[in-house]
Design brief:
Blueprint (H helix, E strand, L loop, with lengths): L3 E4 H6 L1 H12 L2 E5 L2 E6 L2 H25 L6 H19 L1
Parallel strand pairs: 1-2
Antiparallel strand pairs: 2-3
């Protein structure tokens, strides 16, 4: 999918057509102003996919930082802590 570039004046004059093309799978369109990128028009589905991908990458980066700083626990430690909390809740209800 080729990314197309059009000037602001073209986009203003042909906005309905541009939206149809982008929405119908034509890919994103770069909007230029004075020869420089001013905006990108993208369909909602691909925008949402990009946002989800960025969120996942952020979570991976956060996890890698936790590993570097030693903020990790084994399965056994986590399950032991959960079992302890469950037991405490059950005891409090009894």
């Amino acid at each position: 999918m080729a990314v197309r570039a059009q000037s602001v004046s073209y986009v203003k004059a042909h906005l309905a057509q541009v939206i149809d093309e982008v929405r119908d799978g034509g890919g994103p369109m770069i909007v230029t102003q004075n020869g420089a990128t001013a905006a990108i028009i993208q369909d909602p589905e691909s925008y949402e996919r990009n946002q989800q991908a960025l969120a996942m990458l952020k979570l991976v980066a956060m996890a890698e930082e936790d590993i570097r700083k030693g903020r990790v626990h084994t399965h056994a430690e986590v399950f032991a802590a959960v079992r302890k909390k469950i037991a405490a809740v059950r005891k409090a209800k009894a």
